Amino acid sequence: MTHAPTDEPAPLAISPVVAPGEERLGVMICGHGSRDEAAVTEFNRLAAHLRARLPEHAVESGFLEFARPIIRDGLDALKAAGVTRILAVPGMLFAAGHVKNDLPWEVNSFAAANPDLTVDFGRELGIDPKLLKAARARIEEAEAAAAAVDRADTLLMVVGRGTNDPDANGNISKVARMLWEGMGFGWAEVSFSGVAAPLVDAGLRHAVRLGYRRIIVFPYFLFTGVLVRRIYDWADAAAAAHPEVEILKAPYLNDHPLVIDSVVDRVADILAGETAMNCQLCKYREQVIGFEGAVGAAQAGHHHHVRGVGTDGDHGHHGHDHGHDHGHSRP
């Protein structure tokens, strides 16, 4: 895997002087943010990869909560660099409350305050063939580090973050099914690190009873953090409780080259005008079973209290990784 030479944001090699009528593009990669410094470092590495892949554009990054720079800081930096059009891309896998609500609120608020700039908001990474190939590679890494076991004797446990948006949670089930059939596992299960059921510990208690020789626990996450470590801790506990079953821990996606390719594709989607999300099962637009009251809710940001407050390293203590997704409002 090739990494950028530094995790620190590179200075922008761009003149703020723009000729009349000239369009100068800037790319804003929007992260969730975490109290965990390792998670922030990994996201910054992603931003560094994008700068290397998109040298013709100014590229900035920012976080929705906890870490700095915050999203508004990144947008302001692009404005100061002289861009005339900003392409804002969610650095997130699925469209739950953060992508449907909080990030659009941040971007739209900036756009309203800067009517001289064109600001376009892209779609989430979603279920993407390149991300599925990256997922396959991470699972294969876990298999390669252990003794050979037939995949027909292996259960794949795909773990999602978990949100209060059933559409986003359902995407984890689709990812699991694609990997199950595409890689030829004997069975696949889905669990979540928080909010949605089943949690990983409950999912593993169920999975070990199905009789497979091996279980591979794969966090379908972009970056590390408290939640990923919690997933691995649950896997270790299940392995200790059930020595008759081999339980492997697959790496999360991180900065696999195909992940970088997928983010670059989302930038290209904006330029091609292909930014629409799948809204057929969006609880803010349709009366989804159990969430009928969410239709038409007003869009508002919900992260003011933790925006830019810093990581654990800033405060010298261990905090929590925001394991929930507010998802109160309509995109």
Automatic annotation (TrEMBL):
Q: Which CDD domains match?
A: CbiX_SirB_C, CbiX_SirB_N
* Transmembrane portions of the chain: none
InterPro entries of this UniProt entry? CbiX-like (IPR002762), Sirohydro_Cobaltochel/CbiX (IPR050963)
Q: Which Gene3D superfamilies match?
A: 3.40.50.1400
Protein name according to UniProt: Sirohydrochlorin cobaltochelatase
Keywords from the UniProt entry: Lyase, Metal-binding
Q: Which superkingdom heads the taxonomic lineage of this protein's source?
A: Bacteria
- Is Metal-binding there in the keyword field? yes
Write down the species.
Answer: Roseospira visakhapatnamensis
- The EC code for this enzyme is 4.99.1.3
Q: Where is the composition biased (Basic and acidic residues)?
A: 312-331
Q: What class of enzyme is it?
A: lyase
Transport as UniProt keyword: no
Q: Where is this region: Disordered?
A: 302-331
Report a single Gene Ontology molecular function: metal ion binding
